[in-house]
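In the previous lecture we treated proteins in isolation. Real proteins rarely work alone, and many bind small molecules. This record shows how such a complex is specified: first the sequence, then the SMILES for pyridoxal-5'-phosphate.
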Amino acid sequence: MPAKNVLKGEECNLSWPLMQNNILREDLTAVIQFLSDATPILTQSKNVRSFEEEWSAWLGVKYSVFVNSGASANLLTITALREVYGLGEIIVPPLTWVSDIASVLQCGFTPVFVDINPRTLGMDTEQVIAKITPRTKAVFLTHALGYNALDQRLLGELQGRNIPLIEDVCESYGGTFRGQKLGTFGLVSNFSFYYAHHMSTIEGGMISTRDRSLYEMFRMLRSHGMVREATCEELKCSYRQKYPDLNPEFIFAFPAYNVRPTEISAVIGRSQLRRLDQNNKVRAENLRLFLENLDAARYQTDFETEGSCNYALTLVLKNPDPLLCANAMKALREHGVEFRRGTAGGGNQLRQPYLRSIIGEQASKKYPNVDHVHFYGFYIGNYPGLDKEKILYLCSILNELPGESV
Ligand SMILES: Cc1ncc(COP(=O)(O)O)c(C=O)c1O
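The predicted 3D structure, ligand included, written as tokens:
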């Protein structure tokens, strides 16, 4: 265990926010350079297209569509599922962001919930398989807080039954399963460039897919459902021929949205993407250091870190211990360490008002692993500039906290 005085000044304020310097001067310089053009186009244009291509190349998929947030990526993805497969059930985790479940509800699907595997924070594979029915239209999994939620059994089962897999990689991009990037296994994958994530475009999100017709649909859905947004001439031509009474510039194929990004966001994204891999390497080292130095009697340290890529350090109590929980929060506050309780999505979504009214007051209790994280789990910022000494110091503080179980 590291000595308590690894940082000079003993009981110091660690000034440790959830995120730091996620938009650097070099990103802003790129924006200033872009704005210096005599007549810069600020609405969705060439930089958006270039960012999408660069993102696809980085990820290893064919097509990507940049949108104004990760939540918009979720919404367009589920909207497209409804168009292609029709309504039914979608299996989702209760430990995710609100938009993963809201998009399912907003599009008219029935969400079906399963508990998590505590070591990955992703859905438990056996429970997912057990919940598949003839009405299942998709499995919409979340790679939570950087941990890979996939395994071979799940992939094989979904493939065998022809059930589309949708990956939410908003919290985990750069993570891998068997050396292959998360977000390349599913039919569609979603990403978020919100400030607190691995990279930031101020606000922004990405939808990636290897399916050409879905790609065309996402392009249209992003922009009012307009057919002219498609890249495929044949597709556009077929609409023009079918609807000769319509102005070809204004054919609306779907009742859709406007979730277009701006060129400024794309310029920042292109600048950020260049350092993503290096940043992620440092983040992975930070998480390893944190988990290796936490007391395994007090805290969960057996997360499946292989291929993980976190923007946050996960602090989950080993046992349901209200005293240790209260002491941990007090210690974090006293040492200036910002944290969130219940993981990135705030914990068990089934406890939230928007779901309670639909699924009932008691439904949340059927998912004890999610509930444990809800009440006894936290996340703490993990960014490239984070001082490793601070990590060791914080571990030494946390490891001495008294609780009922230790
Ligand atoms: C798993 C997950 N999905 C979707 C989102 C939504 O992304 P955004 O905040 O960019 O709308 C988030 C946001 O934090 C998230 O954590």
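Summary for your notes: The CA atoms of residues 36 and 136 lie 51 Å apart. The first strand starts at residue 63 and ends at 67.
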